[in-house]
Amino acid sequence: MSQPLRAVIADDQALVRSGFRMILAADGIDVVAEAADGVDAVAAVRRTRPDLVLMDIRMPQMDGIEAARRILSGGLDETRVIILTTYDLDHYVYAALTAGASGFLLKDVSPEQLVAAVRLVRSGDALLAPAITRRLIERFAQRDEAKPSLHRDLSGLTPRELEVLRLLATGLSNAELAERLTLSATTVKTHVARILSKLGLRDRVQAVVLAYETGLISPGGNS
C-alpha cells in the first residue's frame, strides 16, 4: 500500500488553512503542518519534508514567493509548491513560476479541483498548461533579460532533446509532440524526462521558463 501524500499549508488566515486541511484529509492527503507566515512555512517544510506545499502569496514576515524560492533552492528536490492567491494577476504567476513553483491556483478553487491539482503536481506534471505559461513569459521575459539563469548551458542535450525542448516550450502536449516528431508517446515521455533530469528541472513549466531564459525560444518568436 502506497504512503499517503504529505502536505504543508501556508496561509495567514486560519479559516483558509482549516478548510484546505479538511478538503485534503477527506481525500486521504495528510497535512503534516500549517504555517501562518512565510518564515514559519520555510521552517515547517524543512522540518517535515512534505511532498507538496500549498503556499499563499501575501503573508506577514515573508511572502509566499520568497518562501517558495527558499524552499525550492534548499535541497528539497522532492517537494513541490503550488501557489495560492485571491489575486488573478499575471505578474504573481510569473514570479511564482520563476521561483520554481509547479502550479498556481486561485483560492476560490473547488474542492475537486484542489485535490486534482495536488495529485497532478505530485505525479510530476505541471499545473499550468505550457501554452499559458508561454504567454505569461512572452509578456514578462523582456523585463528580466539581465537576470542570470541558473541553467543557461544546454550543451548537455542531444540535438533531438533540443528539438523536443523547443517544441515543448511552444505549448505542445506529449501527444502533439509525438505526432509532430513521428515518435511514440513512450519515446516522447522518455525524451522529456531526460531533458528535465539533465537540466535539473522539476516539471514542464520550468522547462518553458528555461527555454525563454536561454534564448532557445524568444518572445514573439519560435527560436
Automatic annotation (TrEMBL):
The cross-references to SMART domains, in alphabetical order and at most eight, read: HTH_LUXR, REC
Its domain of life reads Bacteria
Q: Which PROSITE patterns match?
A: HTH_LUXR_2, RESPONSE_REGULATORY
Which GO molecular function entries does the Swiss-Prot or TrEMBL record give?
Answer: DNA binding
4-aspartylphosphate occurs at D56
Q: Which key words are in the record?
A: DNA-binding, Phosphoprotein, Transcription, Transcription regulation
Name of the protein in question: Response regulator transcription factor
What does UniProt list as this organism's lineage?
Bacteria, Bacillati, Actinomycetota, Actinomycetes, Pseudonocardiales
Q: Where is the Response regulatory domain?
A: 6-122
Q: Which organism is it from?
A: Solihabitans fulvus
Matches recorded under SUPFAM superfamilies: CheY-like (SSF52172)
GO annotation, biological process: phosphorelay signal transduction system; regulation of DNA-templated transcription
Pfam families on file: GerE, Response_reg
Domain HTH luxR-type per the UniProt entry, residue ranges: 150-215
